[in-house]
Every structure is written in C-alpha cells, then in structure tokens.
Specification:
With 50 residues, the protein is an alpha+beta fold. The protein has one helix at residues 37-49; strands at 9-11, 18-20. Strands 1-2 form a two-stranded antiparallel sheet. The model has no long low-confidence stretch (mean pLDDT 86).
C-alpha cells in the first residue's frame, strides 16, 4: 500500500494547482490532465470563447 504522502501528483493545466493520484485514475493516470470536472468544463468554455 502506498502512503498518502508518497502518491504521485500533477499540475492541472487549467487552474495550475497540484493534485494527487486517485484510485479511480489508476488505469488512466498518464492521460489525466485536469484536477476536477469543473476544470475539464472550463477547458471547453475556453475553446468556445476563442
């Protein structure tokens, strides 16, 4: 078992905040770019506004 302080982390490409690995992302961790659904939706809005 991995201790919480040893979990991998990434920086969200929208809000630029760090977020850590979650069990639900276990199989797709390499593809995760956003920390939350809110940031994922913000990406769509950002593209539509341009």
């Amino acid at each position: 078992m991995i201790k919480k302080q040893n979990l991998p982390s990434k920086i969200c490409i929208i809000c630029e905040r760090p977020f850590t690995w979650r069990k639900k992302w276990e199989k797709v961790w390499n593809e995760v770019k956003y920390c939350s659904g809110k940031c994922k939706k913000a990406k769509v809005r950002k593209i539509e506004n341009n």
